[in-house]
């Protein structure tokens, strides 16, 4: 409850900022997108992780305002990037349900002057509980405008393939548990290869998440993933450093 009260004022008090983590083309090594990740720097409590306040924002409905704010602020940064660099923004399932949510996102884009085709919304399959008409309507409305969708944390939820079959996803983000940690090896490699092969057939982008070593990068590249993300390339950085990463490679 404390977090809720403080979160309400956090935007006004300028305590929230958006960080950006690069998503890299595994063939060319160039940055193809940045994922926007919200950060809360509390003056007394220090940094409060999104896992602690996003659920609160979802429970209270604050996520609608917060989500539109995040999209708007991130889009204002993204207009300074080269035309072909995509902005990826995480979407809460609560946002999908809210009436007018699609319009809120389009308004944020318009306000920032970012073309809809440069936005990709990431939806976590774990939380993709809203498998109904409203979800289809939400996605179609934005897809018509050119917004793309990524299925986030792929492989950790259920009905993943159902969602890919039913909804207009352009990108699959393979969860980092397949890339590093205790459950990786021959089996996880084979799963990544199979997902990458499916992605190629469906003309989808396959992002390998959580790449922390050069060896992991090489493994997923050989498995056929088109894009990679993780600490090996960069952590999420503030807007001015994201811009510098782009300038450094041009
Ligand atoms: O930011 P971090 O790298 O710690 O992310 C932790 C979790 O919080 C992830 O699941 C991420 O998707 C989520 N998250 C981070 N930023 C946002 C955001 O802007 N909106 C939503 N809905 N979730 C976010
Ligand atoms: O759920 P989502 O994929 O949106 O969450 C992104 C989260 O993953 C953020 O908390 C981000 O900081 C984290 N992350 C990004 N790259 C890496 C990585 O290479 N290793 C680990 N352990 N976490 C990462
Ligand atoms: Mn994500
Ligand atoms: Na993820």
Automatic annotation (TrEMBL):
Domain EAL: 1-250
UniProt protein name: EAL domain-containing protein
Gene source species: Alteraurantiacibacter buctensis
Lineage, opening ranks: Bacteria, Pseudomonadati, Pseudomonadota, Alphaproteobacteria, Sphingomonadales
């Amino acid at each position: 409850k404390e977090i809720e009260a403080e979160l309400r004022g956090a935007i006004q008090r300028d305590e929230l900022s958006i960080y950006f983590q690069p998503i890299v083309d595994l063939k060319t090594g160039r940055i193809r997108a940045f994922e926007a990740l919200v950060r809360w720097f509390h003056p007394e409590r220090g940094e409060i992780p999104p896992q602690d306040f996003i659920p609160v924002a979802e429970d209270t409905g604050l996520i609608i305002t917060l989500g539109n704010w995040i999209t708007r602020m991130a889009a204002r940064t993204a207009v300074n990037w080269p035309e072909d660099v995509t902005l990826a923004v995480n979407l809460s399932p609560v946002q999908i349900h809210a009436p007018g949510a699609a319009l809120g996102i389009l308004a944020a884009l318009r306000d920032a002057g970012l073309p809809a085709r440069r936005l990709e919304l990431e939806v976590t399959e774990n939380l993709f509980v809203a498998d109904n008409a409203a979800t289809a309507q939400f996605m179609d409305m934005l897809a018509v405008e050119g917004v793309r969708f990524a299925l986030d944390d792929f492989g950790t939820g259920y009905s993943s393939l159902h969602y890919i079959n039913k909804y207009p996803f352009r990108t699959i983000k393979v969860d980092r548990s397949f890339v590093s940690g205790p459950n990786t090896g021959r089996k996880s490699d084979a799963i990544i290869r199979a997902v990458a092969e499916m992605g190629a057939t469906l003309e989808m982008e396959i992002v390998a998440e959580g790449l922390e070593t050069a060896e992991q990068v090489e493994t997923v590249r050989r498995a056929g993933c088109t894009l990679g993300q993780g600490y090996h390339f960069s952590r999420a950085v503030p807007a001015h450093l994201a811009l510098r990463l782009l300038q450094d490679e041009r």
